[in-house]
Amino acid sequence: MRLAKLLGLVVAACAVMVAMGAASASALTVTTCEGANFTTNCHTAPAGTTFTASSSNVKLVSSGITNTCSSSLTGKVTDDESTSSTDLITASITAASFTPCNVAPVDVANLPWTLETNKGEFPSGKVTGVHVTLTTFFGNCTFAEDATHTVTLTWTNGDPSTVTLGGSLALITGPCGSSGSITGTYTVKTVNGKTGNIVID
Fold this sequence. Notes:
Layout: H1 2-25, E1 28-34, E2 40-44, E3 50-62, E4 65-79, E5 81-82, E6 88-101, E7 106-108, E8 113-118, E9 124-128, E10 131-136, E11 139-144, E12 151-156, E13 162-173, E14 179-191, E15 194-200
Antiparallel strand pairs: 1-2, 1-5, 1-15, 3-4, 3-14, 4-6, 6-8, 7-10, 8-9, 9-12, 10-11, 11-13, 12-13, 13-14, 14-15
């Protein structure tokens, strides 16, 4: 009888380990790699992993103005794994710049902004906290998210990976219509201060 109980416990333990392994294998995870070909020092990105990304063609559009800017983002991973649609992968954007721009200088506020996705919606996700002010010839115009104006993201794994932003922003103050939009694709440039890449899969 004792042997039968012992065998039962062993089988149960094995089943738990198999289930845990299957759950881990099916999780959506953030992986980073370094080096010119993004093939060295690859590992799951722990919270605190820093990165930069840049774009040469971000458009902020409102009330007949199309403001095209070069832009750079600095951020850090805050949650590197998602196992369900309610379990988020997140990153904080701790610094953002939009310069130069062809029409209006841009100031940013409300940092950190947050990038998030999850196993259920990836490669789609959203960006929260976006807040920008354009100094136009009409006056200063501040745009931000609200209940009906949101910014989305689409992640594309590659060498290097890219994240494309798109969506609308509400006009908070200024003579620039009632809303604006932001579009642009950022390319990952560095990881932890070195040339590197981020993959989510």
